[in-house]
Design brief:
- The complex is a heterodimer of chains A (253) and B (473).
- By secondary structure, chain A is of the alpha/beta class.
- Chain A has a nine-stranded mixed β-sheet with strand order 5-4-6-7-3-8-9-10-11, sandwiched between helices.
- Chain B is α+β, with helices and mostly antiparallel strands and 473 residues long.
- Chain B folds into four domains: 43 residues, MutS, DNA mismatch repair protein, domain I (3-Layer(aba) Sandwich); 148 residues, no CATH class; 99 residues, Dna Ligase, domain 1; 92 residues, no CATH class.
- Helix content of chain B is 28%, strand content 29%.
- In chain B, the strands form six sheets. Chain B has a six-stranded antiparallel β-barrel.
- Chain B is globular and about 90 Å long.
- Chain B starts with a strand and ends with a strand.
- The chains are: A alpha/beta (253), B alpha+beta (473).
- At the A-B interface, α4, α5, β5, α6 and β8 of A face α13, β11, β13, β15 and β16 of B.
Chain lengths: 253, 473
């Protein structure tokens, strides 16, 4: 738990709830983002390992899922071990993922052809135990399917990330449906801060934590993943010397 | 090719040049020699041909577990449940034909519901491949000429004399009188082609195959029973493999049913494996694809592809555990969705974005290389760049606005150009081709990767049209 318990009685209650939720075998480890204000909100101080997380893009990102893919790549880059990435139809450009820290040697792609096979491969990967992170791109995720995935992730301790992307903007309302995922995120691109010279700066995201089990939802404005997959909080130019900021050439889309 | 049929010497096979010269199969040898002076003729080596056909059947085991030679000139491959491992039926047939062509064999292949129908389609319809849609084979065969039915030449001739031309006509005629005149052969072949009667065949087995076999006193049919005996067979096979120091790369599990049909499961692995649990898992995953019918009499398990597999010392380190082995996961997934749909991306030294990645097998060695990271690359790349409407200053300014998929966006910020030159060593058309890439951001913060074909000055270098190639986050 993030904050220290106020009293022993509350601590005992929390433990009891945790036992009811998943039993003692539950993996409690987390993967911190390294950004204090995000980690503070998440129970355990980071993204729970051995759990299913959902990410979707906002606006156009609901269809192309580009920001969501980079966010997932950033998380996957910071895990250990190989990464399995299941898609229906391949449109990822691996050099961009490498720029987010996910090197090509670590990722095995599965082009499953249809959603049912993606789900089956996703679950198989989560159950295996030798992988650090399993990513799958899905349009529909039912309660039953997500429960299966969550249980599979709990047995192995791998992070499961479901990137939700739809064919049409209107279908994105599906993201309101409940699933068994431990957390749910939405990543939307924000206009980047103007640079003193012509050019495009480091991408900025509005990162919405829509839902998290045993925690509260929150909004963050962050700078996109750097070449190690780390997010950063944006600080105003006035607060920092310009040299410390990455120049436009090092910027990452 | 000349040969003896009864006491006549006949032409039994001709090549393309001879066919052009007017020679046909079945004309007397003396006539052929008169038609074409200086004719080069060879005696037919029937046993040699049969041996060659057997070798080819063994080679075809790569496509499916149940294969047999169909003398004098055919192969039968039961592809049920095996085509997805080769990228679907069409891709499998194309691959088969091109591999045969590479070794100088002109092959024609067809897939249909029954052996009889496939036999007919391959010889009468395949150009050089033909896939009969599921359940359509009878109606296709009905339109073929009687010669497609695998009948003796006398029967075909007799039917022609009676005025029959197509298979459908024979089928519509009363069966009894035809049987009285031509014997039971005609009705049997007709039923076999239409799928009304089964047609078992003995699959070819390589003599040095490592194979274990389990007959049952009472036929079995329940999935649990099959799974249990699969486990026992795998254990026996692994012992046999260990004795020879081999590991299995491909397993074929055959189920001989009481009605003489054979069902099969094939499983492949990326590296040689001798692990009982893992191999059992690969096979039992697919049990639901097996139709036991009235029961299974015999199960045989063979390692159709085996490779040397030595013992290996496990490196143990107290600092960091070894990288977990995921080859078993890769095998499980590859057997479910097909081997070529599981891959890693590896860098290629090319500036043209779509050529800078190639797919390699997931178990290929990782050399740790990556792409140079100085320039922005979008996480989603469109398969084909899409034309966009823009307004831009030439030669080297980004557009002021562009419209893509019906939405017009104002460009607030842009980076570029990143000039990519065509690779003249690949194609002549790329000799002086140029693309100028820009990363642009619209007013809401969405970023796109667009390029202009051409350098903005010389029309030789490109059409100066704008395209959208990828989407950033």
């Amino acid at each position: 738990m993030g904050q220290p318990a106020a009293s022993p009685a509350i601590a005992a209650l929390r433990e009891r709830i945790a036992r009811l939720e998943g039993g003692p075998a539950r993996n409690r480890a987390t993967l911190p983002f390294g950004v204090a204000s995000i980690d503070k909100v998440l129970p355990g101080g980071g993204l729970a390992l051995g759990a299913l997380h959902e990410v979707a893009g906002g606006r156009n990102g609901a269809i192309d899922g580009a920001a969501a893919a980079l966010f997932a790549a950033g998380v996957a880059a910071r895990t250990k071990g190989k990464v399995l990435w299941c898609v229906t139809r391949q449109d990822l450009f691996a050099p961009a993922l490498a720029q987010a820290g996910l090197l090509p040697g670590r990722v095995v792609y599965v082009e499953a052809g249809d959603e049912a096979s993606v789900l089956a491969c996703f679950e198989e990967g989560l159950r295996h135990g030798g992988l650090g992170c399993v990513v799958a791109e899905l349009a529909r995720l039912s309660m039953t399917a997500s429960r299966r995935l969550q249980l599979a992730a709990e047995t192995s301790g791998a992070i499961g990330i479901a990137i939700r992307r739809w064919r049409r903007q209107t279908e994105a309302t599906d993201f309101g449906q409940p699933t068994a995922a431990v957390s749910r995120w939405r990543v939307t691109a924000l206009p980047s801060r103007p640079l003193p010279v012509p050019g495009v700066g480091r991408a900025r995201w509005q990162l919405e934590l829509i839902r998290v089990r045993a925690g509260e939802s929150a909004d963050f404005e962050v700078e996109a993943c750097d070449d190690k997959g780390r997010l950063a909080l944006f600080s105003d130019l006035a607060d920092r010397s310009p040299k410390a900021r990455p120049g436009p050439v090092r910027a990452l889309g | 090719m000349l040969g003896r049929q009864g006491n006549r010497r006949l032409v039994l096979a001709v090549d393309a040049a001879a066919r052009a010269a007017g020679l046909r199969v079945g004309i007397p040898a003396s006539k052929a020699q008169v038609l074409v002076p200086n004719l080069q003729s060879f005696d037919l080596d029937a046993s040699g041909d049969a041996a060659g056909l057997d070798r080819m059947a063994l080679w075809s085991l790569r496509y499916a577990p149940i294969v047999a030679a169909d003398p004098p000139d055919g192969l039968i491959i039961d592809t049920t449940g095996a085509d997805h491992l080769h990228g679907g039926e069409n891709a499998m047939l194309q691959g088969l034909v091109s591999r045969m062509a590479a070794s100088g064999i002109e092959a024609r292949v067809a897939v249909a519901d029954t052996w009889g129908a496939a036999h007919a389609c391959a010889r009468f319809l395949a150009r050089p491949t033909f896939v009969a849609p599921l359940g359509q084979a009878p109606s296709i065969v009905r339109n073929l000429s009687i010669g497609a039915l695998r009948l003796a030449p006398e029967i075909v001739e007799g039917l022609h004399t009676l005025g029959f031309e197509r298979v459908g006509e024979v089928e519509a005629a009363p069966r009894a009188s035809l049987t009285l005149r031509f014997g039971p052969e005609l009705g049997r072949r007709l039923d076999q082609a239409m799928g009304r009667r089964g047609e078992p065949f003995e699959p070819i087995r390589s003599p040095d195959l490592i194979e274990v076999r389990r007959p049952f006193g009472e036929p079995i049919g329940a999935a649990e029973t099959i799974a249990r005996y699969t486990g026992k067979l795998v254990a026996a096979l692994c012992e046999a493999l260990e004795a020879k120091g081999l590991g299995a790369r491909r397993l074929d599990l055959l189920f001989h049913r009481v009605d003489n049909r054979i069902e099969a499961i094939r499983a492949g692995t990326a590296v040689p494996v001798r692990d009982v649990k893992r191999l059992t898992r690969l096979l039992t995953d697919r049990i639901e694809t097996i139709d036991p019918g009235f029961g299974i009499e015999v199960m045989t398990l063979a390692a159709t592809l085996a490779e040397p597999f030595g013992s290996k010392q496990i490196i143990s380190s107290q600092v960091e555990g070894p990288e977990p082995d995921i080859t078993d996961l890769i095998d499980t997934l590859a057997n479910r969705i097909g081997e070529q749909r599981l891959y890693r991306f590896a860098p290629v030294e090319s500036d043209v974005p779509e050529r800078s990645v190639r797919r390699v097998a997931p178990s290929a060695p990782d050399d740790g290389t990556s792409w140079p990271g100085e320039w922005p690359r979008p996480p989603r790349l469109l398969g084909h760049p899409e034309p966009i409407e823009t307004m831009a200053l030439l030669p080297d300014h980004p557009p002021v606005w562009f419209s893509w998929r019906g939405i017009r966006r104002r460009v607030m910020r842009a980076d570029g150009p990143e000039r990519v030159f065509g690779e003249w060593w690949q194609r002549d058309a790329e000799l002086i081709a140029v693309r100028d890439y820009f990363q642009v951001e619209d007013e809401s913060g969405d970023r796109f990767w667009i390029y202009r074909a051409g350098d903005g000055e010389d029309p030789e270098t490109g059409s100066h049209k704008w395209f959208l190639h990828g989407v950033f986050a």
